[in-house]
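Why ATP-binding cassette domain-containing protein? Reviewers of the renewal asked for a concrete example.
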Amino acid sequence: MTETAGTAGTTAETATGTGGEVDGGAFIELDGVEKVFDVRKKTGFLKRERRQVRAVDGLSFTVSRGEVVGYIGPNGAGKSTTIKMLTGILTPSGGRLRVAGIDPSRERTRLAHRIGVVFGQRTTLWWDLPLIDSYRLMHRMYRIPDARYRENLDRCVELLQLQDLLDVPVRQLSLGQRMRGDIAAALLHDPEVLYLDEPTIGLDVVSKTKVRGFLRDLNAERGTTVLLTTHDLQDIEQLCSRVMVIDHGRLMYDGPLEGLHEAGESERTLVVDLARELPPIEAPEPARVVRVEGPRQWLAFPASASAAGLVAAVAARYPLVDLSVREPDIESVIAKMYAERAGA
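Here is what the prediction returned.
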């Protein structure tokens, strides 16, 4: 835990500066950003081979103030590397990166009071201290005015339901309780942007619901910009208006959540219950029957198409008893995008 505390102290030193304006109104701006790591691999006795791994490869995007953006991709895609460059932990190998007009790697301390960070697999709280003592230390480290600290603490404690946990040592908290404690710690100094790296990893359903509700309220009430990386796509569906998909350090998709279905050529499913068992329905193209079980049949059709015409065609020719339309699974859409990229 010593290392974590030291990192927090370094980040928070003299966090009193302000950033400049960002061109075009973008709060976060990346232009051709690259990150290359030198990796040494053992190839024999006393022999090592040196090679370069390109974790981020010419990444360009902007995020405006108040946006909640999902940043998703498979393991090793470059998500955490991007977050670490945005916070100043890592220095880009090339390209231009700015947060609130500030270069994070050159002015990390200056930027610290404007950002909040939560890494799902690593805490910024002091392991052996009660939760409230971690908050008091951050009060001093970030030089938060007393009234502002009390107001933010009271708000976080209430909305994240931390009242009964403040005097409990961090090591005795469950994962879900600690995660809520970490999110509160990241927000005590009123950051303008919040980076969340797997914030709901390992949490139960109740804890996830609490965290998601809090983040929605935070964005709605204070306009906090949120960049969220996660493997739990329900986080994306419930919180984000925009999604960026990254793979092998490159941006594969950037747009609204609904557009993912079109980009991934996803399909909706019309489930039809007929009055009796019949051969597969002769549906108008591009719809097609993908499954038949007795009187029930499943017809797939493009997610971008309306179901009305297909329903009318089926109802006009077949003894229809009931039907339902199933939306495409976002996980399968993204998996298909990855598969197509890998086969290209």
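The mean pLDDT is 85. This is the kind of structural detail the renewal will allow us to pursue systematically.
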